[in-house]
Amino acid sequence: MIEAELKARLSNPGAVRAALAARAAPTREIYQDTYYDTAGEDLDHTGRELRLRSVDSGEVRSHLLTFKEPAVDEVSGSKPEHESTVGAPRAVDHLLRSLGYHPIVELIKECENYRLSHLGRDFLATVVEVPEIVGTFLEVETMAEAHEVDKALAAALDLLGELGVTAGELTTELYTDAVRAARAAR
Fold it and tell me: Of 1, 80, 119, 160, whose CB count within 10 A is highest?
């Protein structure tokens, strides 16, 4: 499956939050992400990602291992995604390191997740703040088969429009790149 996703850097986060809250109740979660790569950053150079994520909802803590393949849509950066829950994140970290992968960046995402339907598709809309990056972001994503990515992205763009997000706010900026740049500027 492909994660058909659009991301925006919001100019009016309050209005977007209000529009989302009119459609669904948010769940708040903290994501602690660790991205892994080889010493030569082979995954990064080929547009792939290997991530271990811990999700803390305040009541439950869960862990996910995710591998993303290169983008199938260059405009949005949408990628095939393979994800599995993990019961022992320390063991997975050890396994990845033993296979030659090491953490290249770790970051925290403060998220408000809204699950909703739009144009017959199930969406996860996430308002994101990363403490090391200035601004508030919105991600809207839906899972799609390869032959329906364009249709899924069109629905995502329509949803963004209904939420008051403009085309000028769309971005393909990666949090990992922005965090690296912020750290380098210190």
Answer: 160
